[in-house]
Give the backbone structure.
Amino acid sequence: MLTGKTVLVGVTGGIAAYKAAELVSLLVREGTVVRVVMTAAATRFVAPLTFASLSGNPVACDLFAPAAGVHAHIDLAAAADLVVVAPATADFLAKAAAGLADDLLTTLLLACTRPVLLCPAMNTNMYRHPAVRENLARLARLGYHLMEPDAGRLACGTVGPGRLPEPARIVEHLAALCPRRDLAGYTVLVTAGATREPIDPVRFISNRSSGKMGFALARAALERGARVILVSGAAEVEPPPGVELVTVDTAEAMRSAVLSFAPECDLIVKAAAVADYRPARVADQKIKKDRERTLELVRNPDILQELGASKGNRVLVGFAAETENLLESARAKLTKKNLDLLVANDVSRADSGFGSDTNLVWLVFPEGPPQELPLMDKRLVAERILDEAAGILAGRRPTGSGLTGATDGHNH
Ligand code: C5P
């Protein structure tokens, strides 16, 4: 899986830096091209020559080293298929969480759009410190992959979590993250987050969508090589770097954005929670609480249904948040909106749907039985959805007529 890939190994200044030597050696044995970047502190533990000898490539340590070229941080980030930082110290995690860029490794991380695996290793008390916990939570929100340290006897004599996992396990984890490039050459549009329908200049109608599922899809599609347009309503999470971000407020604005990009798209995934209704009138001034009022609502256009009605060769994936009759409603929506896949999730559970990091979904297809996925991280749900979408796209790749364009109906 890792054979032929370029893995950038970041080494930071902890005693576990010596284990990174074995990691590099294992990766090289897998047929991986390894580039090592060390922080200044790491070079106090292990000599760069060790990594240069094991990887067969020069080791980069200095953002300003003339030999590395003026754009070393960009070039190294661009050349890597995957990045792993092992060990990742508390100091490095804090810098990465804050987006600091004061050395080569932290700077190239900001320039990197590929999966990054961080392997924290430190003293147990340090690992449990709320500041470190907060940084790790923020890094997870920013899209970094984190590997739990092993528990055991640490170099400092403490017993507890904080030990760098065995290099062989890090290699396995990296192999699992290794991006398939099955969406290379495709344009993918993802909608995410919640629309906001104004009532007056200060109030709106919205919903609990956090944007996490849609952003995870956008990130995964980007990692799989697609050009990604992310049309986002209100969201609680950071958009993945590297996407073409279009932020919108209302369902009408989302509709215009989606319809204007649709002709360029091969796959459209509508993860956004679009408000079904909007106030019939938007007050110019803040509405006063001087009397009882009734808010009159009108239906918003159903963007997905519109896309389904003139779908051409595009693959369309919708979401259905349900609190009852999950599969029945999902099937009806799939047919009505002319979709290739509908992701149905039960939003009545606390660990699934709006706001949570995990999701429990069914994948519903036009033909064949629906598939229930186990409760899993939204990032893994995103990968499964894209596995299916990439399969449908591959089956549909035309033999010379171009990827988009009008054919009637869908290919099932
Ligand atoms: O019918 P329902 O709202 O449950 O369908 C949800 C799916 O339809 C989602 O994929 C959502 O993004 C999309 N949708 C839409 N426009 C609307 C309402 C929902 O595109 N006005």
In short: The chain has two domains: 6-177, 187-404. DSSP finds 14 helices and 21 strands in the chain.
